[in-house]
Hints:
Rossmann fold, six-stranded mixed β-sheet, Quinone Oxidoreductase, Chain A, domain 1, single chain
Amino acid sequence: MKAAVCYQPGQPLRLEELELEPPQQREVQVRLGAAGVCHSDLHVLDGTLPAPLPAVLGHEGAGIVTAVGEGVHTVHPGDHVVLLWRSSCGQCAYCAGGQPALCPQAAQIRQTGRLLDGTSRFRRGTEEIRHFLGVSAFATEVVLPETGVVPVPADLPWPVAALLGCAVITGVGAVLHAGRVRPGDRVAIIGAGGVGLSAIQGSVLAGAAQVVAVDLQPHRLAAARRLGATQVVNASSGDVVAAVRELTNGGADCAIEAVGRPETMRQAFDMTRPGGTVVIVGMAAPQTTFPVPALELVRQDKTIRGSIYGSARPRSDIPRLIALYRAGRLDLAALLGQTYKLEEINEAFSALAAGQGLRSVVLFA
């Protein structure tokens, strides 16, 4: 099977022929249909985010089950599935408490790059190649835990299914679960990539009266308008905070940061009204911090919270998102940008780094 391997930061991905060992107990093998090209993968490539290497990158994908290991009961060969980069055991305190994205068992896979038995299914000769976030979607076939897939209807287009596994659930979930946006609220969203555009649609679903999108790229701001933003602010045109506060008559009820930079995190805090909520979604380097004025935080009764994977429950939320898509209330096709072949993966990342297009997708069929 073919896969795009990251050997070390600062170098292009290398397309390799790898050996894929068959699924073991409670594991499934999936042939990829599509994989999204996300900034989190780019951050590994440029060294911003650490990861066990060498590894097959990619964490947003969908495909068809081709084989199952012993003890697998929830999916069968032929099933179409979305891959979860935040799989969960379903039994720990976090899973039972409705926070499956915080499951420590799944964290073991992400931290080691190996599956639950402590080994990898990828080999290049005698060399072990690691799994990235338990998914490794930039491969023609992968093996991952049974808990790392969610069945979806077979008629769902592969690119749409792939985006459900990261951008859509993260952005919509950040609004509905973390921000708890209510009808009539004013929402500001910094960053109009795949996650930010999904958050805009989530805000519309929540009944927000005002949705202000902030970005540097005119084509992304145009997409934000099409997907429900009531106003847009080009971040290169001046004081972003002042512009949003003026548009929202004193500040947003909820500001969502989907960039991952300390300056935009602080902007999100500053553009939120007293009593409002700031939701940080953007992935930053491990050492990144941003300053918060403690007195203002207390006096203005603001809330700051992080949101990983949309603070969602993927096994119940993904079917709901599909239902909204089918009802015409989520325009997932509008999130899609250019499509690439696996052999063109480095071109896709060059375009992403340059801020071109919307959510690019690698197609395998």
